[in-house]
Inverse folding.
């Protein structure tokens, strides 16, 4: 049921890793395939990272396959799920019989204990992120208008961007999942600059709104020995808790960031000074 498993890694595994090894360990690609639900599994915070692209017929979130004791139980038996529509067209997500229409950039928080989730709407592209949960929080649709955005960076520094906190305690309650959307202004290319590390949470970035002939150079690793992965539109990258995560595009773009771990405190991060980077 999981197309690929990403194992937890040690920072010392960075220095001698080839570019292909880095891509194999951290890059999550081909999540958005017409008529399919694609799920991958990361041992870091036990994130399920997936995509659902419905065609003429609706798609269903798969049920658990393993272990035998959980076979055919809901995937969300002990998990919560965040959904963001990154497609240009509105789509519908039905959660235990209740329908939610998600326009571009709308998100849905789906609580632990949910039995059935289906996706429909040709042209909608649903990005899926699930982590283990310990209690039930209300099912809720979240839009960019639900909270005052955070404006960061400047045009002069090529990092003028708007950060939308979609699933965080002041916008939408959750057990462990934090999720948001950041959009860069035309002419701005740097995200998360200056960069940071948060040892108590892992993070997943999904880059999108990027034309096929453009790329994002995503930087990761410890501050004094950064590496990079060159990413295309609609690819995700896993950032272990010990890693920087920042990028520069050959154009502007958007990205969904999602975190889970020890706390739900967005500001629990150590901001790095540029002189610490090597
Ligand atoms: O831990 C927080 C995340 O890395 C993002 O919110 C950073 C981001 O959107 C940005 O600065 O552009
Ligand atoms: Zn971060």
């Amino acid at each position: 049921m999981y197309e690929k498993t990403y194992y937890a890694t040690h920072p010392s595994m960075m220095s001698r890793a080839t570019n292909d090894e880095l891509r194999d360990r951290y890059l999550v690609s081909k999540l958005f395939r017409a008529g399919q639900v694609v799920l991958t599994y990361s041992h870091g915070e036990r994130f399920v990272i997936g995509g659902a692209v419905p065609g003429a017929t609706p798609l269903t979130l798969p049920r658990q396959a393993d272990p035998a004791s959980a076979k055919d139980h809901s995937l969300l038996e002990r998990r919560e799920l965040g959904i963001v529509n990154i497609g240009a067209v509105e789509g519908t997500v039905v959660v235990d019989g209740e329908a939610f229409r998600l326009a571009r950039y709308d998100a849905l928080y789906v609580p632990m204990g949910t039995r059935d989730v289906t996706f429909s709407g040709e042209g909608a592209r649903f990005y899926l992120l699930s982590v283990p949960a310990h209690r039930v929080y209300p099912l809720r649709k979240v839009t960019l208008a639900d909270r005052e955005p955070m404006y960061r960076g400047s045009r002069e520094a090529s990092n003028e961007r708007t950060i939308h906190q979609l699933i965080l305690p002041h916008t939408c309650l959750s057990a462990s999942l934090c999720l948001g959307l950041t959009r860069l202004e035309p002419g701005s290319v740097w995200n998360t600059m200056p960069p940071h590390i948060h040892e108590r949470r892992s993070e997943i970035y999904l880059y999108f709104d990027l034309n096929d002939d453009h790329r994002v150079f995503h930087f990761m690793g410890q501050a004094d020995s950064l590496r990079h992965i060159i990413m295309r539109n609609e690819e995700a990258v896993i950032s272990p808790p010990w890693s920087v995560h920042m990028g520069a595009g050959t154009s502007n773009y958007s990205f969904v960031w999602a975190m889970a771990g020890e706390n739900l405190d967005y500001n629990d991060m150590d901001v790095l000074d540029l002189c610490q980077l090597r």
